[in-house]
Hints:
- The chain folds into two domains: 26-185, Nitrogenase molybdenum iron protein domain (Rossmann fold); 191-293, Nitrogenase molybdenum iron protein domain (Rossmann fold, 3-Layer(aba) Sandwich).
- Helices cover 46% and strands 11% of the residues.
- It has ten helices and eight strands.
Amino acid sequence: MTIRIALLFILLTLTCASAQAQTTTLNIAVSVAPQKYLVQKLAGEHAKVRVMIKPGQSPTTWDPSPREMARFATTDLLFCIGVPFENIWLPRLQNNFPNLKVHDPRQQIALRPLHEHCHHNETHRAQVEPVNSTLDPHIWLDPLLNIQMAENMLHALVKLDPTHQQEYQQRFEQLRLELTQLHLEIEALLQPYQQHYFMVFHPSWGYFARRYHLQQMAIELSGKEPKGAKLAQITQQAQKNGITAIFIQTQFSQKAATTIANQIGAQVISLDPLAEDLPLMLRTTAQKLSCALEAPCPLSSH
């Protein structure tokens, strides 16, 4: 009887240990919310994903509390993306938490310059170290670049958790199909407006514009609002190119955009490139752009 109880105890212990191993959840941090969408789609219930930039915050000014910093002690993996705060904080995090794995998911992606009126296809390769702030980090605004980013994330997840490799791969294939379909939908919607200009405050939409053959005009100059003669010049350019709507985001000032809009009779429309629901955000962007470029069209400011 004693032997049977001992064997039963050992069996239960091994079963519990096996179950615990199978249900281990990865703790993953990402710089911006759209990355969370991709990681969660890939990892499913095998990961808890938190976003470093909270809603309404700017990626240029992340300043973690001591409690937020402490969470990196139990973080298995951090996906960076090249936003400005990483230049300062990634070295600090890696210095304070030597075991923290940091993965840059931009390999094999051609990065464009973050210039106000830049439409060149200059190619740069992503580096693991903090990127130059003149390169555009907003690759998540191109559905097809998201496929490459998701594949890079897949490799990092499999390396960290090879037990679920097959499941991660299947999830990636499904995600690839969803993003490809999203691209085709947006492409069909915006095809009539190729080479048309649209105006934004902050030049977040360069990859989106390049993918769908649009021309992005930015109000912001080197991270600052234009004033005086420069503001007047941008206003003239907006008028010349038939701008009927100016797209802003809540993380940045709306003053210059509102001034220009008032002078040329344009609407000020909000877009959120940092929204977590990536497909909804990109579809909404395409719909609002389509309306603006087809003006007159009833536009929502929300």
